[in-house]
Amino acid sequence: MNARDEVLTRLRAARPSGAVTVSRDYDPPAPDGTDLVELLTDRLLDYRATVRRCDAAALPTVLASLLTDASVVVVPPGLPSAWLGGTDVAQLTDDGGLTPGQLDLPGAVVVTGCAIACARTGTIILDAGPDQGRRVLTLVPDRHICVVRVDQVVYGIPEALSRLTDPTRPLTMISGPSATSDIELNRVEGVHGPRHLTIILLLP
Amino acid sequence: MTGTGNIVAALPFPTAAKPKLADSQLRDNLRRATHTIRDKRLRTVAELPEWERLRLAGAAIKDDVLARLPELLVEFEAAATAAGATVHWARDAAEACGIAVDLALSTGTREVVKIKSMATQEIGLNEALEAVGITPIETDLAELIVQLAGDTPSHILVPAIHYNRHQIRELFARRMPGVDLDALTDDPAALAEAARRHLRARFFSARVAISGANFAIAETGTLVVVESEGNGRMCLTLPETLISVVGVEKILPTVRDLDVFLQLLPRSSTGERMNPYTSAWTGVTPGDGPQQVHVILVDNGRSDVLADPVGRQALRCIRCSACLNVCPVYERVGGHAYGSVYPGPIGAILSPQLSGAGANATLPFASTLCGACFEACPVRIDIPEVLVHLRQEIVAAAGATPERAAMRAAAWVLRDRRRYSAALRAARRFAAPLRLVGRPDAVRHLPWPLTRWSASRDTPLPARETFREWWSRERA
């Protein structure tokens, strides 16, 4: 018997019988008066991310001010072009061919949108949509600026996952900058992923 | 088909634990780290009023998986294959290593980058790769520390928990090639920076990565890796080939089930609301990430564990290590004393079941049955229940022993009040001279033939007055 058949046969013989019911009562609604933007901000600051708020009209100015010391801006193919209208920093738009070496330039900053944000855990979910691009773009540059629209912010993880349009796309869930707890179980920011995470909350 | 690999203790637990108990530096490091994480876990768990409902749902989802495992594995295989992955099956550690080594060799690579993975530690994959001349590079900070030290992991989540920052600094200074000694202090941020520099070029040049998976989703064929540092993202994104070694019990039926585990796991493991990075990938995505994706599904003793009605709950484990961090035994002896890559309370029930109790027969006794592990377990594994169950099996298999005879005699005495009172009086007479030496209410070392009984426990002396005596004196 090949390994597949043997493993499956053994599991069939060993498994318990009877159906199991799963109670899905673990998803409470947000408490009355919860301000999702405030909650998300609180969580992000706890992870030592930087948080800014502005409306669409002010976004190019805010982005330009965040990019003053950038050497190059890495841009996913579908990022709204107006967002970077206020800066003259060189842009590197990904056509699918940018290499890790190009993305690793000192002072490189990547600007993206996101798919969903979860306020309760301070989590930004990227699903490789056109304004986010390939996973490598948000991984190699040392600084990631992510623009989150207020209508993308939900309360808990169950709602965040249920709003994903296609969970088989490459997903990256980001909760603060890269960190480790490996030394004496204390959290320290900054290992391999971007060491600086800035979230711009885009108000209507 | 019992499991093989790095799950079989070379020494009985009491023998392995003895030198560890004498190492005060080790105990100091462990106490500091486990207490840090305990307090953090309690704070973030208390934030969720629905925590107990999440635990119940987590346990139920895993029990459902165990009941439907063959169908779910076939469903996973079909979905992953349709998405461009190649799925392999392995009966045991040697077979899993053989598949992974052949896949790595076929790419012509001389080194692979690795994401921390219990499954690859369990099957001994690093040793197997080295045997054919491929260098495995551990990229998780704690795994890197252990690898540079030529040591073995001592904790499921933080394999280098037994080192403090000063020891890690010394190790990096001596063993990390090209390290900048001037910038290297024992500040954890400086140590993390050194690891970043050391590994960056390797991530960019690696052609093959090896990972485990925290979850494998049957309906979509998706694999999920939960991590902190971004080394996982590097391995899952940059190389051309990705090989993931996954225990068969890692299956979840649907994407929706992730919502339970993405809440249970980070709070239980590092005490955070959410870990910095979680990646999910489904087969091959053209233009994004590895274009050759392999999944190796491993049994290695799990089907044996599944066959035990009491013991099978150990297969719910999501490797969060909360049970290690609250265990009074683990806190004092550390992970190496357990002799398996799975230490602590979960290791004491998982290792003997995966490998067959023979070699690991002392592990179920490495516990005080205090129950802290069950309280902390996010999927409600009743570890004390399984410990007692395994002890019963081991004692039953041992047949007639002096301990068994003594227990039978004790049972006969305790069944009858007059026999009990008489025995108590006799014990008090015997104990009276013992009070004159040493501690007044307990004896450290009993004389032969009870020497072994007292080797790892104090023996309390009978009280000077029993409750019945006190009652009749007070109420007479």
UniProtKB/TrEMBL annotation, chain A:
Q: Which residues form the signal peptide?
A: none
Xref: Gene3D superfamilies: NagB/RpiA/CoA transferase-like
- Which InterPro entries does this UniProt record tie to the protein? FTHF_cligase-like_sf, LUD_dom, NagB/RpiA_transferase-like
Residue ranges of the LUD domain? 109-202
Q: Which domain of life is it from?
A: Bacteria
Q: Which Pfam families match?
A: LUD_dom (PF02589)
Residues in coiled coil: none
The name under which this protein is listed is L-lactate dehydrogenase complex protein LldG
**Biological source species:** Allocatelliglobosispora scoriae
Q: Mind giving the lineage of the organism this protein is from?
A: Bacteria, Bacillati, Actinomycetota, Actinomycetes, Micromonosporales
From TrEMBL, chain B:
Q: Where is the Lactate utilization protein B C-terminal domain?
A: 400-474
InterPro entries in alphabetical order: 4Fe4S_Fe-S-bd, 4Fe4S_Fe_S_CS, FTHF_cligase-like_sf, Helical_ferredxn, LUD_dom, LutB/LldF, LutB_C, NagB/RpiA_transferase-like
**Gene Ontology biological process terms, A to Z:** lactate metabolic process
Which one Pfam family would you cite for this protein? LUD_dom
Q: Which residues form the 4Fe-4S ferredoxin-type domain?
A: 314-381
Extract the PROSITE patterns matched here.
Answer: 4FE4S_FER_1
The LUD domain sits at 75-298
Is DNA-binding one of the keywords? no
Keywords (A to Z) from UniProt: 4Fe-4S, Electron transport, Iron, Iron-sulfur, Metal-binding, Repeat, Transport
Q: Which GO terms describe its molecular function?
A: 4 iron, 4 sulfur cluster binding; metal ion binding
Q: Could you confirm whether the keyword Repeat appears in this record?
A: yes
PANTHER family associated with the record: LACTATE UTILIZATION PROTEIN B (PTHR47153:SF2)
Q: What is this protein called?
A: L-lactate dehydrogenase complex protein LldF
Give the originating organism.
Allocatelliglobosispora scoriae
Q: In the record, what lineage is assigned to the organism producing the protein?
A: Bacteria, Bacillati, Actinomycetota, Actinomycetes, Micromonosporales
